[in-house]
Amino acid sequence: MPSRPFPANPSSLTPRPPSFLTKTRVLFLALTISASLVILASIIYFLYHLWHSLVHRAKTIPFDSSAPLKLQRFSYKELKNASNDFDASNVIGKGGSGTVFRGILRSGKLIAIKRLDALSLQTEREFQNELQILGGLRSPFLVTLLGYCVEKNNRILVYEYMPNKSLQESLFGDGVSSLSWERRFEVILDVTRALEFLHLGCDPPVIHGDIKPSNVLLDFDYRAKISDFGLSRIKVEGEFGVDMFSQDLGKSQELWKSQELSGNLTAETPTVSTPVESSAHEVDFALALQASSSSKNSRSCYYNAKALNLNSVNYNANIATESDVIRSGGNNAKGKEVSIVDFGGDGWNHKFVPYDDEPPCSIDHSKELNSNNTSSPVDEALDAKQWGKDWWWRQDGSGELCSKDYVMEWIGSQICPSTNPDWDEGKKTIQEKVEGEEHSTALDELEEGNEPHLQGFGFKHSDKVFEKKESRWRRNCKKKPRKMQEWWREEHLAEISKKKGSSSSSKLKSLETKWKKGFKIPHFDLGRRFYFRRRKNFAEQSQNECDENGEFSFRRGWKKNKNNHSVGSDMWSGDLFSRELSSTTSMRGTLCYVAPEYGGCGYLMEKADIYSLGVLILVIVSGRRPLHVLASPMKLEKANLISWCRQLAQAGNVLELVDEKLKDEYNKDQASLCINLAITCLQKMPELRPDIGEIVRILRGEMDLPPLPFEFSPSPPSKLYSRSRRKHKVTD
Ligand SMILES: Nc1ncnc2c1ncn2[C@@H]1O[C@H](COP(=O)(O)OP(=O)(O)OP(=O)(O)O)[C@@H](O)[C@H]1O
């Protein structure tokens, strides 16, 4: 008998209610639809990004600083031959960082060869900047960097040759054949196009950082091209303009520390094929500089550059105080010592010892870097990064003292009747004015004790003629506060004495004696780039050495150039001044061209270039230097180009600023447009300055000039109006 089938689970036999089936179906459908929607959205998102990046790329040049265009590597011999053994007759210019020679390659191509001065951290930094930034850019408005040479301590850059040299020569050179208005206007247009390319055409944007006449070179047809990217920045991280040199500092410092911890700071120096292939070396230089500037108590910093991964340069970046070296007997170092910064002895000696001549030495900078060991590694990394951003203008732990103020004070002191033949005319008013103000009378005070030195500094022209006036002036000056001198005395001597201790007390004494006698603070070449940097042989550099070929660079300190071919050096250089500044805070840029917000205390942004452009435009239009106090008789109010321009604008007569050499042969509309544009670029608040896109459009006549800032305006609007306008502009 067939067995009855086992009844299935009664529940399975129960037919599912239709509602359940529907629910499942709906759920399945919903899931499918949402999944497809997600997939679709992802595809759209991906496509959008692809499209966006393609469109963006089409507009800007993707700028990868680590992968510059192919540059030719020249051998030293090749360049030596090209320049006839770097013959003096081939010198075409001399800047703060090196000498420029004319050269001819075997192919017959003319080149400009810039041989950088003795290897130093600064030189190296500029060399790297030039290679990594200019080397990665090509534009008809930028001087083309053709190649480089790295051999032993030689750092050479090779550029396209610019037959008409720089705008500095054209405007202020010997036997100046005056630039016509058309050429001047073209130069202004070219410079703005160059900046347009850098700020808007490059991705990320590049900030030049040193726009001035000597960095505007002129080709055969007097078309202008921008050069010298030694101070340039690549704007990264959205908002901040970060130095190539310091942007990776945090990273590298972490790396460096971890290497140190793991005992891995060895002499096994990485071999790198080209300077541009390495991205770490500049960072380690920053470290080295930081250490040098922060090691308040160290008398020497031994630089051992591991990460200076230059071709044929193998050394360890590592830094130690002298005491560390002594303690370890000089045996710790596994790398090679490349340079020594000696804060002892006669002052701020900065000795760079050829790395290949020196024995290995001990390096242990960990104490300096890790002086506060309580912080976490993350904090340290952050600190390091922040530190990296600030190092340039923080020296010796002297806080945030803004060098600009000091410089400005000094400039104030330079506008002095002894050097200004025209002073007599407005003497009364000026005397009253100066007495009423806090202007330092440093120069006059200094002049008192050191008359013979004046000649060396270029005061000889006016000495005899104004002897009487001077003595009268000095009598007046005696009553005034010796602000700058006192400042120097307090800050500098105290600092030196602290640093050197008793061992150098005799030198300090002699310095103080000199001080009592009265130092001369000569004029320095305004318009030259300045850095604060420790200068070799502090005491040795007597003022008598100063000659009219000397140049002042805060980067280099004062230096005597026997073969100085650079023009515009009628503003003499200041040895003492450079030392004063070098020992306090740091700053970079070119005096009078550097934007106020960047006066040693801020980030370099596009608007800093705009400010420099404003100064440059005024210089081009007027044919005057921004600060013109010595070269020719003039009224005091004309000495400062910007304030003179402001006065003219208020009087509604800006065209008086136009170079007299042009006579009436210039386009008045263009000239007043340029001057008014410059005025808008020179506004103190960066956000009020137009951006480069607007400037180009204004110059092309495609956009109206914004209303002049009220302080420049002939008829200043009411405070209320001006305030609201400003507010409006800021919110724009
Ligand atoms: N490619 C070039 N072709 C022709 N002349 C050049 C070229 N490059 C530089 N020069 C000349 O050499 C001079 C010095 O240039 P360099 O860039 O070394 O210094 P600078 O800009 O005057 O000063 P600093 O480097 O201190 O800012 C220029 O003013 C210019 O006359």
Automatic annotation (TrEMBL):
EC number annotated for this UniProt entry: 2.7.11.1
Pfam entry (one): Pkinase
Keyword Chloroplast tagged: no
Cellular location(s): Cell membrane
Region called Disordered, residue ranges: 709-732
SUPFAM superfamilies, per the entry: Protein kinase-like (PK-like)
Catalysed reaction equations from the record: L-threonyl-[protein] + ATP = O-phospho-L-threonyl-[protein] + ADP + H(+); L-seryl-[protein] + ATP = O-phospho-L-seryl-[protein] + ADP + H(+)
Residues of the Protein kinase domain: 86-708
Any one GO CC term of the record: plasma membrane
SMART domains to which the protein is assigned, alphabetical: S_TKc
Highest taxon, organism lineage: Eukaryota
Entries under PROSITE patterns matching the protein: PROTEIN_KINASE_ATP, PROTEIN_KINASE_DOM, PROTEIN_KINASE_ST
The UniProt record lists the keyword Membrane: yes
InterPro entries: At4g25390-like, Kinase-like_dom_sf, Prot_kinase_dom, Protein_kinase_ATP_BS, Ser/Thr_kinase_AS
Basic residues bias locations: 722-732
Primary location class: membrane
Regions that span the bilayer: 26-51
Keywords: ATP-binding, Cell membrane, Kinase, Membrane, Nucleotide-binding, Receptor, Serine/threonine-protein kinase, Transferase, Transmembrane, Transmembrane helix
Bilayer topology term: Single-pass membrane protein
Enzyme class: transferase
MF (Gene Ontology): ATP binding; protein serine/threonine kinase activity
Residues that, per the record, bind ATP: 114
Protein name, per record: non-specific serine/threonine protein kinase
Species the sequence originates in: Morus notabilis
